[in-house]
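Duplicate of #3305? Posting structure anyway:
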């Protein structure tokens, strides 16, 4: 009896010691998560390249170049007071482009602020896309969304609520529906590092893990959530390891390496399509510009850090790789840049010339049948507009 008690107390002591040790060390017990990269910042192939053909490689490059040029132009327009707000993806182009290229066109995309380019990759008309930023009559969203919050059913890209993280459970819901209906489709949710602090993130990942839904989570860790650096956003060493708690497979990918992103997303999509559930990918990247046109990052971050990341530019790196591979010549590249710039200028010119949506369209689409009080307000508005010439309003 005494022996048993002694053994018990020794076990107790032992387990107590090892428990406290474990508690002290627990965040570091996880193995280091390697960074998946196939093209290094100098443009050299350093890993196993995913299977792609030249047409696909060039389509990805062209789309990255297009969004870089469009972002530059739209930021100028905002400074000139011609548009109200803009959110650029400069420096992050490889993440959304590598992702959409690896998805099937029928897959649903739930974007945040910087992934509108996925629509352009799927062939959405550029002029109509720019109309969204003007919120005019050419905008498929009828001027009712914030600028830079693109969406269109025609390309399976869902409208973003602007509240950080809300798109993540929405994507899980869509994935769950696909599973029930046995649709061969996956739902991909983009998010920033900041979104991982939202309750919606945790609810969505838990649900995805438990119900094994065909979803992909793409966290663009661009190192800043407006003025909050990732180091202050989370005490985790990486964002990727958050997936461990939800039983989801995960990887850390160089988000400025378009082929690494493409390969990782392709694999994750295949898993989801096989019925093996969701995957979480942390895509390491950097926001080179401001959070949005309403922000001035010089007040909270060191320019030297920006310079470090400019040297890892996804577009420059991919250009060098393509030239090295013989997919592209410097001359063709220059010609394409000039041509895309003209396309952007022309789309902006045509979009800006479109009239605003009719004012009375305010009352459309709210109810299936317009109630009497909205009917009265609509009549009053029309009378007001008719009796006040445009200049006086
Ligand atoms: C629920 C909620 N809280 C705060 C905001 C204000 N806000 C807009 S963008 C943003 C930062 C988002 O950072 P991150 O998720 O890292 O994405 P990034 O913009 O860097 O791509 C915040 C806090 C918001 N839109 N919604």
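Output from current build:
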């Amino acid at each position: 009896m005494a022996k048993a008690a002694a053994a018990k107390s020794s076990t107790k002591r032992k387990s107590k010691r090892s428990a406290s040790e474990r508690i002290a060390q627990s965040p570091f017990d996880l193995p280091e998560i390697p960074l998946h990269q196939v093209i290094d910042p100098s443009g050299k192939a350093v890993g196993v390249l995913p299977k792609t053909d030249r047409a696909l490689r060039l389509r990805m490059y062209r789309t990255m170049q297009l969004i870089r040029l469009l972002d530059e132009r739209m930021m100028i327009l905002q400074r000139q007071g011609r548009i109200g707000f803009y959110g650029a993806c400069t420096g992050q182009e490889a993440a959304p482009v590598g992702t959409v290229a690896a998805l099937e066109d029928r897959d649903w995309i739930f974007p945040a602020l910087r992934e509108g380019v996925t629509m352009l990759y799927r062939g959405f008309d550029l002029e109509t896309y720019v109309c969204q930023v003007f919120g005019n009559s050419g905008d498929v969203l009828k001027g009712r969304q914030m600028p830079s919050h693109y969406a269109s059913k025609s390309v399976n890209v869902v409208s973003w609520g602007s509240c950080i993280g809300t798109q993540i459970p929405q994507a899980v819901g869509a994935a769950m529906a696909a599973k029930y209906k046995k649709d061969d489709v996956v739902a991909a949710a983009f998010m920033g590092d900041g979104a991982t602090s939202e309750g919606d993130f945790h609810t969505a990942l838990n649900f995805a893990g438990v119900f094994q839904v065909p979803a992909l989570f793409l966290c663009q860790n661009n190192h800043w959530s407006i003025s909050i650096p990732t180091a202050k956003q989370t005490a985790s060493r990486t964002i990727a390891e958050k997936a461990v708690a939800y039983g989801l497979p995960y990887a850390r990918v160089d988000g400025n390496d378009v082929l690494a992103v493409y390969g990782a997303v392709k694999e994750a999509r295949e898993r989801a399509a096989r019925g093996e559930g969701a995957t979480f990918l942390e895509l390491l990247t950097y926001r080179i510009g401001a959070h949005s046109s309403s922000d001035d990052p010089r007040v909270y971050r060191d320019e030297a850090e920006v310079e470090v990341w400019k040297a890892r530019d996804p577009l420059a790196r991919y250009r060098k790789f393509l030239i090295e591979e013989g997919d592209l010549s410097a001359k063709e590249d220059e010609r394409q840049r000039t041509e895309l710039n003209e396309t952007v200028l022309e789309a902006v010119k045509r979009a800006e010339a479109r009239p605003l949506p009719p004012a009375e369209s305010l009352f459309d689409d709210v109810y299936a049948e317009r109630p009497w009080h909205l009917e009265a307000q609509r009549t009053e508005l029309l009378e007001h507009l008719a009796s006040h010439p445009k200049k006086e309003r």
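Confirmed duplicate; merging threads. The chain has a mean pLDDT of 93. The domain at 35-352 is CATH 3.40.50.970 (Rossmann fold).
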